[in-house]
Fold this sequence. Notes:
The structure holds 2 protein chains of 2 kinds. By secondary structure, chain A is mainly alpha-helical.
Amino acid sequence: xxxxxxxxxxxxxxxxxxxxxxxxxxxxxxxxxxxxxxxxxxxxxxxxxxxxxxxxxxxxxxxxxxxxxxxxxxxxxxxxxxxxxxxxxxxxxxxxxxxxxxxxxxxxxxxxxxxxxxxxxxxxxxxxxxxxxxxxxxxxxxxxxxxxxxxxxxxxxxxxxxxxxxxxxxxxxxxxxxxxxxxxxxxxxxxxxxxxxxxxxxxxxxxxxxxxxxxxxxxxxxxxxxxxxxxxxxxxxxxxxxxxxxxxxxxxxxxxxxxxxxxxxxxxxxxxxxxxxxxxxxxxxxxxxxxxxxxxxxxxxxxxxxxxxxxxxxxxxxxxxxxxxxxxxxxxxxxxxxxxxxxxxxxxxxxxxxxxxxxxxxxxxxxxxxxxxxxxxxxxxxxxxxxxxxxxxxxxxxxxxxxxxxxxxxxxxxxxxxxxxxxxxxxxxxxxxxxxxxxxxxxxxxxxxxxxxxxxxxxxxxxxx
Amino acid sequence: xxxxxxxxxxxxxxxxxxxxxxxxxxxxxxxxxxxxxxxxxxxxxxxxxxxxxxxxxxxxxxxxxxxxxxxxxxxxxxxxxxxxxxxxxxxxxxxxxxxxxxxxxxxxxxxxxxxxxxxxxxxxxxxxxxxxxxxxxxxxxxxxxxxxxxxxxxxxxxxxxxxxxxxxxxxxxxxxxxxxxxxxxxxxxxxxxxxxxxxxxxxxxxxxxxxxxxxxxxxxxxxxxxxxxxxxxxxxxxxxxxxxxxxxxxxxxxxxxxxxxxxxxxxxxxxxxxxxxxxxxxxxxxxxxxxxxxxxxxxxxxxxxxxxxxxxxxxxxxxxxxxxxxxxxxxxxxxxxxxxxxxxxxxxxxxxxxxxxxxxxxxxxxxxxxxxxxxxxxxxxxxxxxxxxxxxxxxxxxxxxxxxxxxxxxxxxxxxxxxxxxxxxxxxxxxxxxxxxxxxxxxxxxxxxxxxxxxxxxxxxxxxxxxxxxxxxxxxxxxxxxxxxxxxxxxxxxxxxxxxxxxxxxxxxxxxxxxxxxxxxxxxxxxxxxxxxxxxxxxxxxxxxxxxxxxxxxxxxxxxxxxxxxxxxxxxxxxxxxxxxxxxxxxxxxxxxxxxxxxxxxxxxxxxxxxxxxxxxxxxxxxxxxxxxxxxxxxxxxxxxxxxxxxxxxxxxxxxxxxxxxxxxxxxxxxxxxxxxxxxxxxxxxxxxxxxxxxxxxxxxxxxxxxxxx
Lengths: 465, 710
């Protein structure tokens, strides 16, 4: 799985945070079990894929068999077909091919490995583990040469580590990862995964040591303090409020150490800047935004973080320029689109507000299940003076169950416009009381809360019984 | 007795008889007419004389009443002024001036075509702190007299009160050229204060002080001025030493002696009258003159001998002025503080008695308590020092200055917790109190949280940070410690722009100093050297040669490859140039000696270069940890092991432990035969962060100790 950029991760965490509640526990970024065999470019396989696409499955199968005979390192023919079926969202047929592959050779590792992979992706952890354990036992058979055995065992352990992590059995996951590291002790990313699992077993110092070793082995990885900060940040979202504050403090301590020790690493500055923005310290974030922009002036993540900072500072034209730049390079970037809508909606220019509505509408169409695009659409509509349409869009965002802090602000604004002061006050108060999280309108919300409180009718004392 | 002289000619008729004859020769009507005319002339002259005498007496009385009015006006006595004007009107009902003044007094307004009256009303409003009325009347005056300093200042003062900073700056820009339209001393002081308040460079005024006021002070007739003017003139002189003035004027030393004489004259005048206020003011002026003379000495305008003479006389004058205040008002805390400061400067142990007497007379006065605290600190009584400082702050809990003083005392006695508490108290009153922020930032730095420190200072905003050199320095240093090294050139550019706008290099120099005092970073160092060149091009009189030399020395030592010949040559040349202009500068001496010993391996040269440090160390003058380590290293290289141990042990007590200090102390102990101690410090050095040179020294030390073992 490609690791999301930390900024996106921060955004996602913020978006996932329910007001007044805690988001669901976040497991350590699990890596799904590896696919059986590396798909090496092979002309016969390419031709077989073409035949598969033309729905000539038997012909494709024949061709694959021929290819496997020539190159035994290729995946089993039926598993390859199953793989393509999965890619075309044809899971039912894929499963049939997997079963056939296993039935044809009950002692072959790849069938169980593949089956485990599919089960993991579909959330059937127990089934995935059983398949992978079978594969592990089979991989140790003398049938396989040393190279094959090593490859199979590595893939099996990788898969099992992911499964146990997802099951929150971190001790088991740790053992599998240690097993893999014994085979490949200089593998930095693997050690980083181990560190994350060790952290979740409640041993942060040990985790830090592992991260330090991982960074020494592979300096392209995130610096250890930066990873530790992210781990504490992740933990703080699942902790009790009293513990969460301490966790956040630890996260910040690590961010500080990261920027001090890795002064030339743009990512350290960027991540810390975002953290400070989430903490409502926009001015302090500016120090690190400046440093990040100096180190990586043209980076997309730099532009995104800088745009976010400008939005916090109400410098909408500057944010707009940066977000337009991101969208030019990546038109489908939902982060840039969402915040561009906010910047345009705040411009006060009728044409730009209309564009914000159109862009938000497109965003909704592209992400119909996500609540955030609806929230952005609602806000844009509200800014365009279409309160009733905004009501509908924000209603959809609210029906998702969890609203982020800015969405709560949008809702409060809408309810205020509809003179439902009590509800508006409730939303706003809960958003403002959130100690940490991405909240572009935090300052406005804080300033507005006392004013809104004055509009809330005082509750009459209930008559004593 | 001789007989009376005989008649010339007794035969001739007498003169009366002759006149009678002559008179009778005229007709009778003519004779009687002439008699009448003569009688009338006599009577008319008598009447005129009597009238003139009465008129003169009245005019003298009117004049006296105007004098009374002027005196009352100077004292701000409205009743006295009105009574005097009433008297004038009673004496001379035709005196329109009195009527106009009375009307102006009653209404506070004037539309009269009388410049003196207009300015009288402006002055009266200023005295009553009625800025809107003063500005209103001043504008009327400016319409006719656009070059009037006081009127323009009155307008600016009101603009500042109403928060119109930009308009105030525009008005200040319209102040005339002092050379063409010299301001009165009072107006000069007023204008200076306003320029400083608006963050503008008062160079125009300080040049005037340097070129004109210095001559006025030196003129033989300066003593003829009234007491108030004398005091104003000295205060004008002091404006040239204000931090905003930038570089010191080159003629200021010419007035150092005349100012002393003027103080004596002012003292005699004030002491002769009931001049309690003037004596207090004089004491305050004397207090302010001490750093001014020190600045003259630092800039090289006066010799050490002249400085000693001047300060001795000044201290006597200060004590005399404050003692005169105490003789009149024993409950005046400022007087005890003034004398106490002089005694501290003179290393006179009586300072404690003075402050104790002040506390007895004035009760628990916060400033006296604070002073007492500092004295206790000096006397190595930390508990009493801290207690006094906190008592002082608690006496005036709304005074942020006293809380920051308490914080500083707490820092000095090693109570960082108390310091943080005091800083927070100061910031409760003044959330962006610069000194409190700086102390808190320092504590965060000590506690290993440079990011927290830089964020705390950043809360002030760069404009405010650049305003106070100490803050700008601290901010720059903290930014490096917090890992914000890549943005150093940007900060320097902004500081440079700020300096260009204000006309004073203070901001950019402070940032340069801050970066130069921070841990070495090649990018920052390059930016600093570049900024030094830009400052030198823009402000040629700003002397940054020492900073440049020290930065080049750091670059030679810390930048890989270490002691690269070209960089080393550049550093040595710059350091030698800096030494030639400042032969007693301990920083330059230490850097040069370090280079000699470590890079050039010339121990004897190092020993010669380190002479200012030796002198300072022998005289118990405080040296920094790195300076003491350099001294120890030089002694060590020259085989003077006991002196090396003494210097390095002093370094250990002065500064936090460092790899450099530990390695050299290990070597010194080894040389002194204390092998066990040497091993301890060698082990300690291994645990600390090291520069390439430190690593080299550590290897040498390890090899030395190993050889010994074998």
